[in-house]
């Protein structure tokens, strides 16, 4: 990995659909944005931040997550997801993530990912 100068932030938009609901994920019984989908959006953001800095034979894998889902988002809501790389040390990347809906922070997370050689990682699991 070619570490960028910190911090580095990527932000993207997303609109909540029925496929994103707690009902669809079977993680709840109400038609609001599912926490597992929040995590998936945050993971997407972390990958957007570092993918351009990885060597061709490298990838990153999720390591730890601390996620706070603070308020509901409803089907049709427009979301703004941001991930900021705040620390890089010995292949470990630490991100601060935020999800905003209607000018309100709906979720936040600290996520760490580890940079690995793709071939070595896959070989270990054969």
Q: What would your notes on this structure say?
A:
This protein is an alpha+beta fold. It has one domain: Roll (Thiol Ester Dehydrase, Chain A), CATH 3.10.129.10. 21% of the residues lie in helices and 44% in strands. The chain contains three helices and five strands, in the order E-H-H-E-E-E-E-H. The chain has a five-stranded antiparallel β-sheet with strand order 1-3-4-5-2. Strand 3 (78-89) and strand 4 (92-101) form a beta hairpin. The protein is globular, with a radius of gyration of 16 Å. The model has no long low-confidence stretch (mean pLDDT 94).
Produce a short descriptive summary.
With 126 residues, the protein is α+β, with helices and mostly antiparallel strands.
Mean pLDDT: 94
Uncertain residue ranges:
none
Number of strands: 5
Shape: globular
- How many helix segments? 3
**Percentage of residues in helical conformation:** 10-25%
| Distance linking N and C termini | 25 Å
Largest sheet: number of strands, sense, barrel closure: 5 strands, antiparallel
CATH overall fold name:
Thiol Ester Dehydrase, Chain A
CATH evolutionary superfamily: Hotdog Thioesterase
State the CATH class: Alpha Beta
* Beta fraction: 35-45%
Class of secondary structure makeup: alpha+beta
Task: Estimate nothing, just give the exact number of structural domains.
Answer: 1
> Which sequence of SSEs, written as H and E, runs from N to C?
EHHEEEEH
